[in-house]
Amino acid sequence: MAKITAAEVNKLRQTTGAGMMDCKNALVEAEGDFDLAIEILRKKGQKVAAKRADRDSSEGAAIAKVNADNTTGVIISLNCETDFVAKNDTFVALANDLADLALNFDTKEDFLNADYKGITVQDKLTEQTGVIGEKIEIGGFSKLSAPFVGSYIHAGNKIATLVGLSAAVEGADVAAKDVAMQAAAMNPVALNEEGVDQSIIDKEIEIAKDQLRQEGKPEAMLDNIAKGKLNRFFKDNTLVNQDFIKDSKQSVAQYVKSVDSKLEVTGFKRVALG
């Protein structure tokens, strides 16, 4: 049997993130063959992943990243099963590392198939499932491009947002972060009225009409009153129409225009865990 040194165990541990005993056992099984030991650990991860495939992985870390010229941003959530793992420094570091890589890809599928330190992202997730003993997967994947993109990550990495602005004017960085914080806190359903899904509109109108009927309002009045309630829904639930959380006397759209008269919010993305 090949003699396994502490240096070899440490090298395998640094490469895979696996525990010391798992690394030692893999090297013993591989008779000192480093690459074979890595493969043994990956196969262990595959077995654990198969066993935990149906587990709920609603915990994790939502991370937003923006490229160097602030024109493209991405959010990923690296999901796990428990809050204990989600707060682990190594887990959060991996989430940040993967988010940096995700900036280079437009779809979740392409990202999962991308190379990460010699293996695919998906294989890395499977490997980490074996190392950690929990289901590890990419949950959310959202990308946004605009003349200026800003980001915000809520404390604890539970919510991450991106906001696009129409121009990279002076003050755009502060405005984008403020609006990204707004999107995190207020969870709008869409950017504006035009972006609200018709099924949501139909549901809100029906709810309003049902309430009015219960109040005894005449059927002939229902449409007009329901439209008024729908407008209130738009104000409360679309990003640019919401009251700005830092100054409720103005809407988000008005706040952005106070930074620059031609500035507009062009889009946003929001990924939340739990």
Could you explain the architecture of this structure?
The chain is an alpha+beta fold and 274 residues long. It has 3 domains: 6-51, Helicase, Ruva Protein, domain 3 (Orthogonal Bundle), CATH 1.10.8; 59-172 and 261-272, Tetrahydropterin Synthase, Chain A (2-Layer Sandwich); 197-237, Orthogonal Bundle (GTP Cyclohydrolase I, Chain A, domain 1). The chain is built from 11 helices and 10 strands. The chain has helices at 6-16, 20-29, 34-51, 83-86, 89-102, 108-112, 121-132, 172-186, 198-214, 222-237, 252-259; strands spanning 59-66, 72-80, 115-116, 119-120, 137-145, 148-153, 159-165, 243-244, 247-251, 265-272. Strand 6 (148-153) and strand 7 (159-165) form a beta hairpin. The longest helix is centred in the first third of the chain and has 18 residues, at 34-51.
Distinctive features:
274 residues; alpha+beta; Helicase, Ruva Protein, domain 3; Tetrahydropterin Synthase, Chain A; GTP Cyclohydrolase I, Chain A, domain 1; 3 domains; three-stranded antiparallel sheet; 47% helix
What is the topological layout?
Blueprint: H1 6-16, H2 20-29, H3 34-51, E1 59-66, E2 72-80, H4 83-86, H5 89-102, H6 108-112, E3 115-116, E4 119-120, H7 121-132, E5 137-145, E6 148-153, E7 159-165, H8 172-186, H9 198-214, H10 222-237, E8 243-244, E9 247-251, H11 252-259, E10 265-272
Antiparallel strand pairs: 1-2, 2-5, 3-4, 6-7, 7-10, 8-9
GO molecular function: translation elongation factor activity
Main location: cytoplasm
Function: Associates with the EF-Tu.GDP complex and induces the exchange of GDP to GTP. It remains bound to the aminoacyl-tRNA.EF-Tu.GTP complex up to the GTP hydrolysis stage on the ribosome.
